[in-house]
Amino acid sequence: MSNYLYVVKKLNFSKFDSKMLRAGYKVCGPKSLFLKPYASSFELSAHYVSANTAANVQNLPRLPVPKLSDTLDKYLKTVRPHLNDTEFSQTTKLVKSFESGEGKQLQSLLESRAEKHLNWLEEWWLNTAYLEYRDPVVVYSSPGLVFPFRKFNNQNDQLQYAAKTLLAVLEYKALIDGNKIPVEMMGKNPLDMSQYRKIFGTCRIPGEKRDKLSYNDSKYVTVIHNNHIFHLDLWGEDGVRLNEDQIKDQLKKVMKLSETATDKGIGILTSENRDTWAKAYNILIKDNLNRESLADIEKSLAVLCLDAPVDLWKCPDKNARQNLAAAQTIHGGGSNSNGCNRWFDKTVQFIVGADGITGLTYEHSPAEGQPIAVLTDYIIQYIEQDKKSPTQSARPKEPVLLKFAMNNEVSEMINNAKTNLNRLADNLELNCFTYDKYGKNFIKTQKMSPDSYLQMAMQYAFYRLHQTPGAHYESAATRMYVGGRTETIRSCSIESIEFAKTMLNAQSSPKEKIQAMKNAINAHKNYTVQALQGYGVDRHLLGLKLTALENGIEVPKLYSDAGYIKSAHMRISTSQVACKCDGFMCYGPLVANGYATCYNPRDNDVNFATSSFASNTETDCSKYRTALEQSLQDMHDVLLQNTQSKL
Asked: At what angle do helices 68-79 and 102-116 cross, to 10 degrees?
């Protein structure tokens, strides 16, 4: 028996990473992953190399290292709105000193690293942004995605929908495994598709100081109901996949076996601070039963959460339903609702609530939001088409309740986790809504970029509310490069602040307002293009800082300067996650006194999910929503006024 974990099918490669091979790794399987010797699963941690990056099967270009002078010039422009004249003068001197001094050495070392890696940032980013981040993944990292609402009249309706969801997942995974997902393009550039291969079978494993990811290609899912956790095979003993009715019958058995909720649901521990969870995990795995049950969850394709009702249809309107659903997908409503009915370490958890809340929660480390949004549209379309299963197993396997042995210390940790999750849930203020006055079609008639337009509406809203520039993060996908993840679009600019001031100035003419709007939108669009091509500010500066840390060099003063601190304190955290269905993604703010704004622009409306922290006196989610809606209306009206004046 080999000491390496293999999967079926071996690929041929033109190139291996010689260091990995010398270290005793082998390249295995259709996922083309480097595996640790004697590993019992794929361990994706500090030595993680993605399938695409390992072999660069799409022959994509490497992530570039921008010129130091270009990044610093751009940096000075982005910090200007946040500094007074004295501060800006000091920052400018510091930047020039950095450029001619220590920056040169760090740039040279970073360029050397880039020569040895197909993507110089990938491993660093996975570790620093995710696996070494110690706050709970709940609220602070993992987004929720709300599907269109359903009306389930009874348990049968709920389980039928759940069964269809699982079948859609299997169909979609088959497309991924068969390389049948169309390669996405940005203009003429193909995008890295490796994130799609990390959606299913992936789980985050807690560790002290740094977590790891494990990947497994299995044929079962984890089902959680009333906080009890089950193993559910989707193929029978005869090797044939179950059909919809058979999956529904298995889910009925799960519910029958877990009619009473347990107050010792171990899933709540995954909502904890990562070091706290790691401590509990290490206690648990000392017991063989616990170790086997934990491994079973980690190796499953995905998690299905069969949730208790939350009075969805007693909500007075769609807005209230959206807020309730967002809370359920982000944190489960706390320990007294469905917060214990989760396994937050799993990359994808599908949620099917008894009264019609459906959606998913996803652990962010393996993939960005867009592949998840594409999956969402596929699932919704599959369910609406009401496809019939092509197979029927003659011998379905019975669902298995996973058991855990808990001592007093772990029981106390579960109680503490409940308290901490409730505190998180209570502190997250949500205001999710559909802006239905217009959508991207109107914006396009004005020959403007819908994304840049909406970003400037957020800048305008923040400024009108707080009378100060808001450092503003927008995610830009760098998937045109092998192993690409994201770059920051710094949406707050000299032009965006001038636009906000012009709009708020009663003496400004419509012509002046429109010109300021166009200037701000064009500035944002130009920065976006650069960020998509890997020429933003933030990832390069991060790379230089990590280069210093890795080489025992003192971190430059640039990183403790007011310019860096203020411009990187992202009070507005945003992301466009576009799905065709009437759904939306939602998440928590990046900073204590900030707002999150995720948005799904559709032809004639825009779904917004905004959030802030209730404990912070500087922010108010309802006021931010009002300001955003008013800003969108102002922009529309001044454009319409200009159009009419030309007639």
From this structure: 120
**Tens of pLDDT along 527-565?**
999 999 999 999 999 999 999 999 999 999 999 999 999
pTM as predicted: 0.91
Q: Is 364 a catalytic residue?
A: yes
Looking at the fold, whether 281 and 177 belong to one and the same domain comes out as yes
8 A C-beta contact, residue 322 and residue 431:
no
The total domain count for the chain is 3
For residue range 251-310, list pLDDT tens digits in order: 999 999 999 999 999 999 999 999 999 999 999 999 999 999 999 999 999 999 999 999
- Selected catalytic residue, list 331, 364, 472, 524: 364
How far apart, in Å, do the first and last CA atoms of the chain sit?
Answer: 80
Are residue 290 and residue 255 in the same domain, yes or no?
A: yes
Per-residue confidence (pLDDT) for residue 493, from 0 to 100: 98
Tell me if 232 sits within 8 A of 223, measured CB to CB: yes
| Alpha carbons 73 and 530: distance in angstroms, whole number | 13
> Are 367 and 197 a contacting pair, CB within 8 Å?
no
Same domain, 378 and 524: no
The pLDDT of residue 193 is 96
Q: What are phi and psi of 122, to 5 degrees?
A: -55, -55
Shared domain for 279 and 397, answered yes or no, is yes
Q: Name residues whose C-beta falls within 8 Å of residue 538's C-beta, 6 or more positions apart in sequence.
A: 487, 488, 490, 568
Residue 88 lies in a domain: no
Q: Which domain holds residue 489?
A: 436-576+617-646
Same domain for 641 and 517, yes or no, is yes
Close Cβ partners of 134 (under 8 Å, ≥ 6 residues apart): 209, 273, 274, 275
For 97, residues 6+ apart whose C-beta sits below 8 A from its C-beta are none
Nearest-angstrom CA–CA distance, 625 and 58? 42
Distances (CA, A) of 503 to 315, 511, 515, 586, 630: 36, 11, 11, 29, 11
The CA distance from 212 to 396, in Å, is 33
From the list 639, 638, 324, 610, the residue with the least C-alpha distance to 461 is: 610
Q: Which of 445, 441, 596, 527 is nearest to 78 (CA)?
A: 527
Exposure letters 254-264 (e unless 16+ CB within 10 A, then b) = bbeebeeeeee
Residue 600 lies in a domain: no
What pLDDT, in 10s, does the model give residues 463-472? 999 999 999 9
Give the integer Cα–Cα distance in Å for 583 and 578. Answer: 9
Looking up residue 558, the CATH number of its domain turns out to be: 3.30.559.10
Is 28 in contact with 3 (CB distance < 8 Å)? Answer: no
How many CB atoms within 10 Å of residue 73? 13
Task: Pick the last residue of a domain from 377, 396, 429.
Answer: 429
Element (H, E) at 361: strand 358-362
Asked whether residue 127 is assigned to any structural domain, the reply reads no
Task: Indicate the residue among 380, 408, 429 that finishes a domain.
Answer: 429
Residue 423 lies in a domain: yes
Query: Rounded to 5 degrees, what are φ and ψ at 528?
Result: -60, -45
Indicate the SS3 state at residue 548. helix
Distance CA 638, CA 351 (A): 42
| Residue owning tokens 């004046």 | 645
Identify the sign of the CA torsion 103, 109, 114, 115: positive
